[in-house]
Design brief:
Layout (H helix, E strand, L loop, with lengths): L10 H7 L2 H11 L4 H8 L3 H15 L4 H15 L49 H34 L1
């Protein structure tokens, strides 16, 4: 840094020249780890750690490890930003007061087509006992008619085939 407090113009270049492996070592150096501890965490040799830190020190223009850590911390705070897309929110919706009391269904829109099924409430499970009996009798009658129709069709086909 200069005396006026402005940043030198080569800082972005220094930051760009640091490799990911050098940054990983410098990150752990900021946590006050020794070369041996950094080597264990990164699963590399101590000599590789020392070489990466020395190279990073030369890139940063630092005299020693501590100064390299301080310069790296300042550069990381400035240049290590997480890139993100701007968040675009849809315009807010306006709430409109309703004339309907709570619990009532909303009215159908003009383009909603609702056709009543032929059975209407037939399939609900809470019929009265008399209605259940009528439904079962109707189903039994339909089953009998279906069986009689099947027998009649079978008999007719047998007569046609036998001549």
């Amino acid at each position: 840094m200069t005396d006026s407090g402005s940043q030198p113009s080569d800082e972005p270049l220094r930051w760009a020249r640091l490799t990911g492996k050098q940054r990983a070592c410098l990150d752990l150096l900021l946590e006050r780890q020794t070369s041996k501890q950094i080597a264990r965490r990164l699963q590399i040799s101590k000599q590789a750690v020392d070489l990466r830190i020395t190279t990073a020190r030369h890139i940063l223009g630092a005299a020693n490890r501590d100064e390299a850590a301080l310069i790296y911390a300042r550069l990381r705070q400035t240049y290590d930003r997480i890139p993100c897309d701007p968040v675009v929110l849809p315009p807010g919706t306006d709430l409109v007061p309703s004339d309907f009391p709570d619990g009532e269904p909303a009215p159908l829109a003009l383009n909603d087509i609702v056709a009543d099924p032929p059975s209407k409430g037939l399939w609900r499970h809470n019929h009265r006992r008399l209605n259940r009996g009528g439904i079962m009798a109707a189903m039994l009658a339909a089953l009998v008619i279906l069986v009689l129709a099947a027998v009649t069709i079978g008999e007719t086909l047998t007569r046609l085939l036998s001549g």
